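Project outcomes to date are best conveyed with an example. Our students and postdoctoral researchers have been running inverse folding experiments weekly, and each run begins with a structure described purely in tokens. The record below, which covers 64 residues, was selected by the lab manager from last quarter's runs and is presented without edits.
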């Protein structure tokens, strides 16, 4: 308000508010991640055709 030219004769010593300040958390310095092998997954399909397609996908993933 002082910059806007308002209330120049008021000089508060402190400001009291009900807002609880909490600083922002610092970002982690070390990023942890885990890599699962792509070809290791369980096939739960009940139909034979779908099961065969998943098997083909599994074989393609294990090749890389």
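After processing, the design step wrote out the following sequence:
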């Amino acid at each position: 308000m002082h910059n806007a030219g308002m209330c120049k004769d008021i000089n508060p010593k402190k400001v009291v508010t009900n807002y609880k300040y909490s600083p922002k958390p610092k970002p982690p310095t070390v990023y942890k991640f885990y890599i699962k092998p792509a070809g290791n997954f369980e096939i739960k399909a009940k139909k034979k055709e779908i099961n065969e397609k998943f098997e083909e996908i599994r074989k393609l993933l294990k090749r890389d």
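Residues 35-63 form one domain. The mean pLDDT is 81. The training component of this project remains on track.
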